[in-house]
Design a protein that fits this description.
alpha+beta; Gyrase A, domain 2; Elongation Factor Tu (Ef-tu), domain 3; six-stranded mixed β-sheet; six-stranded antiparallel barrel; 19 strands; aminomethyltransferase activity; GcvT_C; mitochondrion; GcvT
Length: 449
C-alpha cells in the first residue's frame, strides 16, 4: 500500500489553493513550516474588546478560512470577536438555507472555542460546573450541557461535552470567549484549592480549525474524502457520537462528531491548524455540485427552525436550564444527588408545584401572523397584559411562516395557546407552537419493534 501523503502534498494537488496562513489578531506564536507529519497544536489566548461594535475590522480575529471565504465572495460581519461570513455571492440567505435542507452546506465555526480537560479531577470538575451526568457518558459520546453560576444556576454559556480517551473535549461559544475563560479559570482555581489531590489540566485549542458539514448529503460527501475504513466508521456513527479518522491521502487526523445546529444530519469536524484550509477546500472540490459554503445568515434561520438557542438572546445568566426547556440535560443521578452549581435552585424548580416547585416562565415557540416578531417584542395575553418577550424570530424559509421563540408566563406555555405579539407598535396574533418547527433529521438508531 502506498504511503500516505502529508497535507502539504494535498495542498499542492488542489488547484488554486493558497498555502499561506491568514493574518490573525495579535498572534503570539511563531509558526513552524508544514512538514510531512502532524504538527503540534499551538495554544494561545486572544483578548477581545467588550463590544464588537466598537472594534475596527483590523481588530477582529480571522479564522483560518478567512482567505477562502473572501475568494468565494463572502460578505463579512463582526461576530464573536471575528470577521465572519454572513453570506456568499453565489446564494442569498434563503437560497443557502434551502440548499442546506436539500443537499449540504459547509459552515466555518472556527470562531468557537475548543477546550480539552484531562487529569484525575477532570470529570469531577466538569460535573461541578455543569448538571451533566458524565459518569455514564462513554468514550466518543457527547452531551449538550451548560456552564452554571454557583448560587443561582443561571446559564453562563451552553456547551457540548465529549468524552474522549483520557480527556474531555468541550466546545463553547465565541461570543462568550472572554467571559467563559475568566469563569473557567476562577472555577478551576477554586476546584484545585478544594481538591489538591485531583489534578486537572486545561488546554484551549485556539488554533484548531472547526467546520460544520450539514445537510442530507453530508455523510455521503464526507465518506468520499476518507479511506474505506474511515468511511465505515462514519456510517456507523449516530447523532451525538464521535470518532477520529484520517483524511484520504493525508496524515491529518480529525475529530468527527455527528450532530450540528441545523436540525439536519451532519458533522462537526475539528481539524489541526495546519490542515484546516486544505481539508476544507478538498471537501468543497470533492462535491462541487452538492456542497456550498454557507454563512451566519443561513445558520441563524436553520437553527431557529430547529428550535436551537442562541446564547445572549435565548439564554443568559438570568435563565436556568429548567426555564429554558433544557431540563433534559440534567442527568438522572444529578437530580438525585445534586452536587453541581445552582443545584438547590434547579432541583427545586424541577419539583411539582404542589411541592413548591416550578418556574414563573418557560421558553416556547410561536408562529406569528403578519410581520415577523423580532427580539424584544412584547407578548400579551388576550386582555393586553404583558406575559413575556420574544428572544429570536424570523420568517421561516422552509415553512413560509413567521416563527419565533421566547419566554412566556408559566401556564400560558401550552401548545395551541393564542396570544398577541407587538410588532412595530401593532398587535399580531400568535400561537404557542411546539419546537422544533421543522422536524429534526438527526441520524439516530431506529426503535426496535
Amino acid at each position: 500500500m502506498a504511503a500516505k501523503r502529508g497535507v502539504y502534498g494535498l495542498q499542492r494537488a488542489l488547484s488554486g489553493l493558497r498555502v499561506s496562513r491568514p493574518a490573525y489578531a495579535a498572534p503570539r506564536y511563531t509558526s513552524a513550516p508544514l512538514r510531512n507529519c502532524r504538527t503540534p497544536v499551538v495554544y494561545r489566548s486572544v483578548r477581545h474588546a467588550s463590544s464588537e461594535s466598537e472594534k475596527q475590522p483590523e481588530q477582529l480575529g480571522k479564522t483560518r478560512l478567512y482567505d477562502l471565504h473572501a475568494a468565494h465572495g463572502a460578505k463579512f460581519v463582526p461576530f464573536g470577536g471575528y470577521q465572519m461570513p454572513v453570506q456568499y455571492s453565489d446564494l442569498n440567505i434563503g437560497e443557502s438555507h434551502a440548499w442546506t435542507r436539500e443537499k449540504a452546506s459547509l459552515f466555518d465555526v472556527g470562531h468557537m472555542v475548543q477546550h480539552e480537560f484531562s487529569g484525575p479531577g477532570a470529570q469531577q470538575f466538569l460535573e461541578t460546573i455543569t448538571p451533566s451526568s458524565l459518569s455514564s457518558l462513554t468514550e466518543y459520546n457527547s452531551t449538550l450541557s451548560a456552564l452554571l453560576l454557583p448560587e443561582t444556576g443561571g446559564i453562563v454559556d451552553d456547551t457540548i461535552i465529549t468524552r474522549l480517551p483520557e480527556k474531555f473535549y468541550v466546545v463553547t461559544n465565541a461570543g462568550c470567549r472572554e467571559k467563559d475563560l475568566a469563569y473557567l479559570k476562577k472555577e478551576l482555581d477554586a476546584f484545585k484549592e478544594a481538591n489538591p489531590d485531583k489534578a486537572v489540566e486545561w488546554k484551549v485549542l485556539d488554533d484548531q480549525g472547526l467546520i460544520a458539514l450539514q445537510g442530507p448529503l453530508s455523510a455521503e460527501i464526507l465518506s468520499r474524502v476518507l479511506d474505506e475504513e474511515g468511511a465505515k466508521e462514519i456510517e456507523s456513527l449516530y447523532f451525538g457520537q464521535s470518532t477520529h479518522v484520517t483524511i484520504k491521502d493525508t496524515d491529518a487526523e480529525v475529530l468527527v462528531s455527528r450532530g450540528g445546529y441545523t436540525g439536519e444530519d451532519g458533522f462537526e469536524i475539528s481539524i489541526p491548524a495546519y490542515a484546516t484550509e486544505a481539508i476544507t477546500t478538498f471537501l468543497l472540490d470533492s462535491a462541487k455540485d452538492e456542497l456550498r459554503l454557507a454563512g451566519l445568515g443561513a445558520r441563524d434561520t436553520l437553527r431557529l427552525e430547529a428550535g436551537m438557542c442562541l446564547y445572549g438572546h435565548d439564554l443568559d445568566e438570568t435563565t436556568t436550564p429548567v426555564e429554558a426547556a433544557l431540563s433534559w440535560i440534567i442527568g438522572k443521578d444529578r437530580r438525585a444527588k445534586g452536587g453541581f452549581h445552582g443545584d438547590s435552585v434547579i432541583l427545586q424548580q424541577l419539583k411539582k408545584k404542589s411541592e413548591g416547585g416550578g418556574v414563573s416562565r418557560r421558553r416556547v415557540g410561536f408562529v406569528v401572523e403578519g410581520s415577523p416578531a423580532r427580539e424584544g417584542a412584547q407578548i400579551l395575553n388576550q386582555e393586553g397584559e404583558e406575559i413575556g418577550k420574544i428572544t429570536s424570530g424570523c420568517p421561516s424559509p422552509t415553512l413560509k411562516k413567521n416563527i419565533a421563540m421566547g419566554y412566556i408566563k408559566d401556564g400560558m406555555h401550552k401548545s395551541g395557546t393564542e396570544v398577541q405579539v407587538v410588532v412595530r407598535g401593532k398587535k399580531r396574533k400568535a400561537v404557542v407552537t411546539k419546537m422544533p418547527f421543522v422536524p429534526a433529521k438527526y441520524f439516530k438508531p431506529t426503535a426496535k419493534s
